[in-house]
Write a structure and sequence with these properties.
This protein is mainly α and 120 residues long. 51% of the residues lie in helices and 8% in strands. A hairpin with a 2-residue loop joins strand 1 and strand 2. The protein starts with a helix and ends with a helix.
Length: 120
Amino acid sequence: MRWSSVVAALVLVSLVSANAAQIIKRSPLGPMVTAPMLLSACTHGDPGVHCDPYIAGVVDSITSNGGALEDNQICITPEGTVEKLRSLTVQYIQTHQDLPQNTIAASEVATAITEAFPCK
């Protein structure tokens, strides 16, 4: 599955919420959620409004592709709760603050989750 497909799916997930416009940024490529925007959504206010659905959309996109995204495979265990996935994502983005401000959040979520839940 191409990253553009993942991003498109995640944008649709974000639009489900009436307040999604707060974390959607317009770019020449269309709506895009950046890593700093997702970090803000996950750490301010109710993460169940924007953060958790976005992360769930990334996970759904990966798992609907047989658990693989490019060369990464995930095998989420029962410990992979929404709260755990959010925590991993926040920690990963905070640890990688040197990323460009326009880094697409979906790629950071996918990396954080594939590192935490690799298939063995």
